[in-house]
User: Fold these one by one.
Assistant:
Number 1:
Amino acid sequence: MEIVIVPTPKDGGRIAADIVCGAMENGAKMLGLATGSSPLHTYQELIRRHRESGVSFAAMSAYLLDEYVSLTSDQPQSYAHTIRAELVDHIDIDPARVFSPDGGAEDPNEAARRYDATIAENGPIDVQILGIGLNGHIGFNEPSSSLASRTRVKTLTGRTRADNARFFTESAEVPHHVITQGLGTISDARHLVLVADGARKASAVRAAVEGPVSAFCPASVLQLHPHVTVIVDEAAADELELAEFYRYTTEHKPASQGY
């Protein structure tokens, strides 16, 4: 695991975009996308490179981490709609090749199984962008999630529903259930890139990076993956015990070694 501490969230977005673009140059075809505030600087940088430098996503397909149960892709609060507004509508990726769990399915459990099978059949995902919740969740794998879990229906904690209420007119509108890629599904990706910023994320980042590997902090599963890059700004890195070591290794890494 490589931990990269950057001055600002915008700097983190540039590094994450470097990873995505470098993977595409090396033949990557599948990109895993997260929603939420953490990846926004990455997406804005990818859009800028597409517009100003001609970076093309035409050969790519993309897979979202999760979706609310009961929301269809045309509803503004759905993650399928959100990712179109934040990224897909601004680059040249084929919208028909951007996939998400079917939150409006009559049988969400079957929809979850189908989505997991689709990723397995077409994968692995080359680069998976991740954020982290205040309680250490990635995707919507809340604390107590199995570290080997597959895509399934999960119940959101009250804290997560409260965190996401800002996207709804009323907090009562936030669905109680989601379809989310499991921690095992996420770990199948070749390269995991977690981006976090702000002091509110500091405790979760510390638990994920330096704490024990435990279902109590689902993001700690990243410690078991062979290729992980964690990109955090100074505020999110504030509780890291080995922060100076991470800064030192980033500064002195071999020139030939990428992220």
Number 2:
Amino acid sequence: MEKSGPQIGGKIRRLRRQKHVSQADLASALGISASYLNLLEHNRRNITVPLLFKLAGHFGIEPGELVESDEGQLVGDLMELFGDDIFADADLTNH
């Protein structure tokens, strides 16, 4: 089974950069090629569940933190933005 969210690659890349780890070093630690990691980071390959767990363990986070969608936060931010008086006459709904 494969699992990938629309943002997982970016999350992996951010975590790797925050820890100052090269793609080659992270790939080696995970037992995958650097080119495969690059594809994952650019959302061109889906991440497998075992690899998801390896990544989470490597970074000391819960696997769910990598796959959680930011959609709820985005919707909340947009609703707050469109709630501004400047949009009062625009007849916008939350649909």
Number 3:
Amino acid sequence: MELHITGDPAADKLLSGDAFALLTGMLLDQQVTMESAFAGPEKIRTRLGSMDPGTIAAADPQAFEELFKERPAVHRFPGSMAARVQALAATVHSEWNGDAAAIWTQGDPDGPEVLRRLKALPGFGEQKAKIFLALLGKQCGLEAAGWREAAGHYGQADAFLSVADIVDPESLAKVRASKQAAKAAAKAAKAGGA
């Protein structure tokens, strides 16, 4: 598996080889660009020296937040996002024995079960869980029965709706265009209902 999300070879290599880094990138993917969110784990790894969930969970919260603020910042909301990453790390460490991939592999779960497990994680609501499930299925070799259906419209082939569909600069441009169109439609609908 070789992901091409951030445009930064080191960040993409970490995402491709570290399930917790990939999960953390998805967690960070809000109110920042996808590239910035998914580059966050490499910044954390470089500054902390590890992406191990146990190490992150055990880090001093104030020091961990400072690591998020260091320029270039890990996220535009360093305080709340540092706390969310630590909460996610603590959950993966305690409930999944530090193995993020176990969330989607342990016990050979089907798509709906993987979705349920993802939604149980701190910071993962319905939409984020569905997008991550689609990313696992489309780019990470997940073969869980029913994953496409469980991921909803994000699971559709050639959808270009989310990070799950980004494999190169061309697909990134398509995803950006679909997100902008969705925002414009939502804005128009809100204006029409006001």
Number 4:
Amino acid sequence: MPAVSTIIWVGFGIFFGYVLWKSGIAMLRSMTMLPPEPPPTGELRKISQKYRCDVCGVEIKMTMAPDDDPPPPRHCLEDMIEVAPLYD
């Protein structure tokens, strides 16, 4: 009769193999899915752009916009300049 510890190790091995198999199949399925359609015109899209005012130095981060490349916002009656992200 095998020892109880051997049965426990075999059970853990089977459980770990099952979890590894299921996660591998899930990753392969996620790679075959098509990306979602872009939202219709007029809906807001998620973006991440930073702008700085040349006149006073105010910085803002734009997170939502109606299109992928929005025009720069205005501050101090001038267009703000786009700032390259350092670590994003």
